[in-house]
């Protein structure tokens, strides 16, 4: 059988493609791309002539069967998405899963990922973090998700669409408190790259005052709940319960 290579591509700056990624894309028999028209520009830039086939959210489940068959027939396949690492808020999960289930070798060719790039420059605790991908678009579901994350002590990483970034930061301020530290990482590796750290309250005001901050692509990072502060809250509450219990005891 052939090999399925999962290849990361740049998130803006084309120089971020790795030498290995270029070699794999050139030598593969077929490239499965999220959007063939979008990726045609990348291939053209690097003068690659490997044939492409679409592998996006709508056809991934059904299309994977055919691709796994190609792999079993001996073809080497490279999976790419529009930008960054496939499967990270991008298609590829079903193909990788089906390929592995069929006993096909799956090889990662690592490279750019917006979440990791943002974390590496944000200056927030990075020893533990939770990648949350996109929040629900509807405000009720988003508030519920944020509420469920309010006690999380790890640094939180979100992807967000530019036209929703202000609402999201405001919803985060409500759920986590306006004092919680956060970072907006926008247009990473591109001309207008901006990495702004502030409290959620300040960040919301800053974004509201400058409509440029509501353009392009962005990652939002939020510091986790302070462990010690969390304990203090719990301690005050347990103390209150203990006093109530003590009053009831004979
Ligand atoms: N697979 C990609 C990765 O590895 O990062 C993510 C794909 S997801 C559909 C697209 C989202 O990633 C954008 O909405 C944005 O949140 C984030 N993103 C992608 N490129 C970015 C960049 N250059 N700067 C900031 N965020 C970016």
From TrEMBL:
GO MF, one term, reads: rRNA (cytosine-2'-O-)-methyltransferase activity
Alphabetically ordered keywords of this record: Cytoplasm, Methyltransferase, rRNA processing, S-adenosyl-L-methionine, Transferase
Q: Which residues form the Tetrapyrrole methylase domain?
A: 3-204
Which superkingdom does the taxonomy of this entry point to?
Bacteria
List, alphabetically, the GO terms of the cellular component aspect: cytoplasm
Q: Supply the InterPro entries for this chain.
A: 4pyrrol_Mease, 4pyrrol_Methylase_sf, 4pyrrole_Mease_sub1, 4pyrrole_Mease_sub2, rRNA_ssu_MeTfrase_I, RsmI_HTH, SAM_MeTrfase_RsmI_CS
Catalysed reactions, semicolon-separated: cytidine(1402) in 16S rRNA + S-adenosyl-L-methionine = 2'-O-methylcytidine(1402) in 16S rRNA + S-adenosyl-L-homocysteine + H(+)
Q: What is its main location?
A: cytoplasm
PROSITE patterns associated with the record: RSMI (PS01296)
**What class does this enzyme belong to in the EC scheme?**
transferase
Identify the CDD domains for this entry: RsmI (cd11648)
Q: Where in the cell is it found?
A: Cytoplasm
Q: Which Pfam families does the annotation name? A: RsmI_C, TP_methylase
Q: What is its EC number?
A: 2.1.1.198
Family recorded in the similarity comment: Belongs to the methyltransferase superfamily. RsmI family.
Read off the HAMAP family from this record. Answer: 16SrRNA_methyltr_I (MF_01877)
Matching PANTHER family: RIBOSOMAL RNA SMALL SUBUNIT METHYLTRANSFERASE I (PTHR46111)
What is known about what this protein does?
Answer: Catalyzes the 2'-O-methylation of the ribose of cytidine 1402 (C1402) in 16S rRNA.
Q: Could you tell me what this protein is called?
A: Ribosomal RNA small subunit methyltransferase I
Q: What is the lineage of its organism?
A: Bacteria, Pseudomonadati, Pseudomonadota, Gammaproteobacteria, Pseudomonadales
């Amino acid at each position: 059988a052939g090999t399925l290579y999962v290849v990361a591509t740049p998130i803006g700056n084309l120089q971020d493609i790795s030498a290995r990624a270029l070699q794999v894309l050139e030598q593969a028999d077929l490239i499965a791309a999220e959007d063939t028209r979008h990726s045609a520009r990348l291939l053209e830039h690097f003068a690659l002539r490997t044939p492409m086939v679409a592998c996006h959210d709508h056809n991934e489940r059904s299309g994977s069967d055919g691709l796994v068959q190609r792999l079993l027939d001996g073809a080497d396949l490279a999976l790419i998405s529009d930008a960054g690492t496939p499967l990270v808020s991008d298609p590829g999960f079903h193909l990788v899963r089906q390929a592995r289930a069929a006993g096909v070798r799956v090889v990662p060719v690592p490279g750019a990922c917006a979440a990791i790039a943002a974390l590496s420059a944000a200056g927030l605790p990075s020893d533990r973090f939770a990648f949350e991908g996109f929040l629900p678009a509807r405000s009720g579901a988003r508030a519920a998700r944020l509420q469920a994350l309010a006690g999380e002590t790890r640094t939180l990483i979100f992807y967000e669409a530019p036209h929703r970034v202000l609402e999201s930061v405001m919803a985060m301020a409500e759920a986590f408190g306006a004092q919680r530290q956060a970072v907006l990482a926008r247009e990473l590796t591109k001309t207008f790259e901006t990495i702004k750290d502030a409290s959620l309250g300040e960040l919301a005001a800053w974004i509201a005052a400058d409509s440029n901050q509501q353009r392009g692509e962005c990652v939002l990072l939020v510091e986790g709940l302070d462990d010690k502060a969390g304990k203090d809250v719990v301690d005050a509450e347990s103390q209150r319960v203990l006093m109530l219990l003590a009053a009831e005891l004979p």
